[in-house]
What we know:
The chain is mostly helical. The protein contains 19 helices and five strands. Helix content is 64%, strand content 6%.
Amino acid sequence: MFFSPANHLVETGRLATPVLFGLIPGMEIKTLWMPPAYLLYSSSLIHLFSDSLTVVRLGSSIAIYFSLVCLYFLTKSFGFSKKASIIVFSSIILEPLLFRFGSAARMEGLTALFFLMSLLFVSSETTKNKRMLFCLFGGVCLSLSCLSHPFGASLGIITLFLLFYKNQNWKLCLIFFGIGGILPILVWVYYIYPDFDLFILQFGSQLVRKKTLFQNFSLYDKLRVFLFGFAFAKFRLIVIGIQIFLLSILSFRFYSKEKSLPKNLQIYWVWVITVLFSLYSSSEGWYVIHSLFPLVWGMGLIYDNLPKFKVVVWVGLLISLSGIFQFTYIHWYKTDSNLILKNHFEKIEQILQNSKSVYLQALPDPYFYLRTKRPNLTIREFIPGELGIPSEVFLKTIHSIDAFVFYNDDLRNSAIKDLLKDNSVWSREEWDIPVPTNHWLHYKTIVYTKTKN
């Protein structure tokens, strides 16, 4: 979904989204459903190297691992001991969730990188003149984080807290920060303005989808989404609960004695509450990666301030290391994931051999495989059922498609469900990918192909 507009920009000079042509209005004109920073970043990599999944995943990995470097320097600037800074860095780099979500062809890594850069600039101790310049750069970085993904806007609460924290020149800093922040936004507004109606439709539909997810997901559903990417999720939840409990006691102790909290502890609470509330509001599993940063920050605080409870830190690291071994064993020792994935995609290609167009809502996504093997195949990606776009907009397009691939029948758009009801027109094949239940390829595949016009 995110590769399509980036690659189209390289090929044609236009930021359109070919996989959504005919499905969502205006996609053949402009991509307005997502802020453009990550798309421009990806298109730059594609232009410099090649139009492959490996290139965009490598770009995401570079961004997420550079964000860890920023986090390390941030801990040093906030007074963590050298050992605690290493604990923070080790706790996050060894967490399998970071690799799984951070190396995907998505924008979470770039969003985190720009956000952490904004924290570094705003928290830097320097002269007054340089301080204003750093506030300017901090505003630019936070703005770029928001333009990578709207989730960055919620992270801005942490940056603003730092801007005001014990800062005698906060008013002047805020002015420079605001100037820096508005400059990239103005460029985006300039891009949006000529097609503002399309922006309202595309971006607004995304907001409606988020609202629907928030309303339909129970607290239990949200907890499952949060824990989905963690190794040994139940144990990780216990460790998170213990961390919050211990740091609550530590905060109470500090406040009882000094009527205030250390700066790094204040940041922890602002950060963790902001991220957890944002995750609760969004109900999107991909965003959970942003919770890793305040949680490992908390591990550093425990290591420095609660020596009797360092065992919590070591248990957290042990869970992450065990997760890496489990992940490796399941995906590369017990099974040959690459071969299984190749055979799976070959099976889909064989079924689609007589099809000229296909609609994909599949996990794992065969887009890149089909794009390479069948360059003349017209590929369309899915319309989320919660998007709320009237079916009249895309009925002509879906009626022209002669194959559909799903991983879950229940998630199909209602108009597509109605289209595929006629068994005399559509042939249906279904299978499970032959992997253990805790394998990342453990999905069902359902393929509909048209048997007659």
